[in-house]
Amino acid sequence: MAAQQNNPAIVEAWGYYEVLSAEEEALLLAESREKARRDFVDRYNGAYREGIEIGRQKGIEIGRQIGIGIGRQEARQEVRETTALNFVRKKMPHEVIAEVTGLPIEEIQRLEATLSDSKDYKEFMTASQNNPAI
User: For residue 8, what pLDDT is reported?
Assistant: First the structure.
């Protein structure tokens, strides 16, 4: 080994070897770091997309539940209004209709006004005036 250290060509070659080895190690370390960075970004992006999809699905479900609730409220309101119109046709007092349906008297009056504008109601009222049994 001592003879090799005295040979300038070997010393020079050994120096190149150490430089190249260090560069190769640095290159491998840089590649490893870059791979780790890409893996992190891929995991982050995947988790982000998954979170967006979960949020979208939850939003759809919440919207569906809200829609169902609104539909039920509208159906209940429609039943109240239909019941009120039937009572109006039977000439029940507005106060009684309001008590039974839970609708305010103003709403019953509005319904009655729309009903009195319809051709069917006018024919019904004419027929009921001519025939008290109706």
Answer: 81
In one-letter notation, the amino acid at residue 104 is: P
Cβ-contact 127, 134 below 8 angstroms = yes
87 and 100 in contact (C-beta within 8 Å)?
yes
The structure's pTM equals 0.49
pLDDT confidence tier of residue 26, bands split at 50, 70 and 90? confident
Could you identify the residue written with the tokens 């891929």?
A: 42
C-alpha count within 13 angstroms, C-beta hemisphere, residue 33: 6
Say if CB 112 and CB 134 are below 8 A apart. no
| CA quadruple 6, 12, 13, 17: dihedral sign | positive
